[in-house]
Write a structure and sequence with these properties.
The protein is of the alpha/beta class and about 220 residues long. The chain has 6 helices and 7 strands.
């Protein structure tokens, strides 16, 4: 697939194929979790998707799995109000988390979602990686930095995924990637490779599939 940027990693054909096969199989909505005691058994690898409200988490999940409506998308920030678990065959779970930074809901509800997410991130032993989505048009904001600080403190491995790169001019993409990479370079729990994507155009989706498939126990 032709993209207006050079991907930070050149994945070989077998790695890309493992990623394709992982996401080509069954992927079904399992359950929505509003309290920690509702979490499914910690019996498989989990990859969580975090990001500011309306950053494109649900769209990215749909693009990865090749399904348009697996995860519900909305133009209304704060629509995802629980941890949504999707079973990726028998391999693992994808976890769509509530957006942070904004939500059209009472403050007490937002506080409850934030506590749920924080407790989940700190205490889930099977959580292999958190994919922190950043809107490429806006870059890292204060709300993102707060979450990265939490992940660093809890020693939870995470990786930055830039979304909506199709909304940038081609000349803006490389500087955006460089600035984001430099911003997280010294963070102890951050994966060094920033993943560029566009769910709408399909840019970076095969590479992100390969990255997820490379996690121990997932591929």
């Amino acid at each position: 697939m032709t993209t207006p940027f050079a991907h930070p990693i050149e994945y070989d054909a077998p790695s890309l194929e493992r990623g394709r096969l992982l996401f080509a199989g069954r992927c079904d909505f399992l359950l929505g979790v509003a309290r920690l005691d509702q979490l499914p058994a910690a019996d498989r690898v989990e990859v969580a998707f975090a990001g500011r409200s309306n950053v494109g988490k649900s769209s990215l999940v749909n693009a990865l799995t090749g399904r348009r409506t697996l995860a519900k998308t909305s133009n209304t920030p704060g629509r995802t109000q629980q941890l949504n678990f999707f079973a990726l065959g028998e391999r693992g779970y994808l976890v769509d988390m509530p957006g942070y930074g904004y939500a059209e809901a009472p403050k007490e509800h937002v506080a409850a979602w934030n506590r749920l997410v924080e407790d989940y991130l700190k205490g889930r032993s099977t959580l292999a990686r958190v994919l922190v989505l950043i809107d490429s048009r806006h870059g890292l904001k204060a709300a993102d930095t707060t979450v990265l600080d939490l992940l660093d403190k809890a020693a939870v491995g995470y990786q930055i995924v830039l979304t909506k790169l199709d909304k940038l001019k081609p000349s803006q993409i490389a500087p955006c990637l460089k600035a984001t990479r430099l911003a997280v370079a010294r963070r102890p729990a951050a994966h060094p490779v920033v993943m560029p994507t566009s769910a709408e155009k399909g840019w970076g989706i095969p590479e992100l599939r390969a990255e997820v498939a490379s996690l121990p126990g997932m591929g």
